[in-house]
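pipeline/complex-builder :: batch 7 item 3
reading input block
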Amino acid sequence: MSIEKNLQNIIDLMRRDDSVDAPADSLRWATNLFRTRAVEPKVSFIKKLSAVFQMEVAQNQPAFGERSASTTAARQMLYSADDHAVDIRIEGSKKGFTIRGQVLGEGFANATVRLFDDVRSFETTTSETSEFRFDNVPVGGYELTIRSPKVEITLKSIEIS
Amino acid sequence: MSATTHERSAGTFPATGVERSDAELLRQCRQGNQTAWDDLVARYQRLIFAIPRRAGLTDEQAADVFQEVFLTLFEKLEDIEQPEKIRSWIVTTAKFKTWATVRASKGQHSPRTEEEMDYEMANLVDESPLADDMLIELERQHLIRAALLQLEERCQKILSMLYLGVSVSSYSEVAQAIGVGETSISPLRSRCLRKLEKLLNK
């Protein structure tokens, strides 16, 4: 591109520039954000969220021709916590229950997941796609925590039966 | 017609002498440097505010998006893997939050992740309110404003008055504003434009 053409291009872009400053109070808020939060101790950077049960999405039906007698129908539940959602699937088998889950939202790859009640505790790590799985979980009422470096999500009262 | 100061200048904040790179600012923010954060806010505030406005959101909604972007930036300061690409990160985040607001205002499900948003945007039959070309233009305008702030004050004034925004000044108005004869404006204008171009090509 010739210099003249390039200069004209710059002029055209400037003429089309209708941007304005953000409102003064938003600017103040943005600069104060650093001032007020940067002094907080590092430990407070872990945000603790309680997930809220949203819905039981579906009960899996056996596929056509599949025998359902050996397994319990799977349950799928959706929880939300701030900007995140947690998809939980519980499926029964002869040896116990399989709990599969996935965190929908950023920052939960390789997060620590703990499933526990008063006497038992199971721990695993999420995959790159924020999925996790527990096998052979006995019947009971559990709590589930998913902990990333910045956020910890807690799902209370997961009934496995 | 006279325009308000903020419409004709390159930004609210004055130039700070030698400009620090985006990557340098981000590194200093990570060390808790308030001035670096202030500079980052000053550098990107217009670009961030422009994205939701260009998508048709109200000023109030745009201000909400603006705050969400800076909050996310603050929370992810340690996680941004390529500090030199902070501009792309900011634009993508502002686009994501804008799009989520547009969807929410229509009572539609808001995408939770960037991948989900990209998928939904790619499958829209109508034109997206934030087409890539538009975002590229906003980024280029941002770079021009940033470069403008690195010029000496007289050049900033000449180019801002002549070209920045929709209402432009005449040569005689510019001459009066900077205290030179009207015939000097044309060569000064050319010189300033070339300096600006040089900065943009650095």
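note: The longest helix of chain B spans residues 34-54.
queue -> next item
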